Amino acid sequence: MESSVNAQNEEVEARMRLVAQQLQLETRIRNGANWFFWIAGLSAVNTVLELAGGGFRFTFGLGITQFIDVVASLLADDLTPLGGHLITGASVFINLAILSIFVGVGVFARKKNLPAFYIGTGLYVLDGIILAVIGDFLGFAFHILATLGILQGIRSLREFRQLPSDEMETQERVDQLLDENVALTKNEVRGKKFIQILAVLVVIVFIVFLCLLATFLL
Fold it and tell me: How much is the pLDDT for 167?
């Protein structure tokens, strides 16, 4: 029975290590996918800041949306107020469409969709190239940093997919194994207690028998 418990313990430990590895990879995948949400969110903030006339912007944002904001602002200055509003509204609509793509990519990437990671990374790399062409090297450098974070998520997802399907145990399965191990351990403890009690009873009966035998002989 002891060997069975040891085997069960080894199985639980092995499966818990696999689950820990799985959870670690899932965390890295989510972190990589979250970059797309940060990119979309900061780009949206940049658009709002541009509409408000502020000179501050986030370098993690998309270069294409910044380009659209600047062009729309220049065109709006040369048009009538109504035409300027129409151009601004069109630029906001286009930016929202672009940001929606990155949000959608982030959603699917968090669901472990590898093509979504590839599409989002490709689009963001192209956006970084645009920044490099127009001379925004600081934004280009931050694009490289964000891309490295996304690539970490891609690498983790590929490792996750390489895990054997029969070894990708869920936490519920580990809990079940732990419960089985605890039940087996309890049964062993009960068995040992029963043997100890039985041994004590045998000793007591033997002592009583010796006492009776001595009384009879004396």
Answer: 47
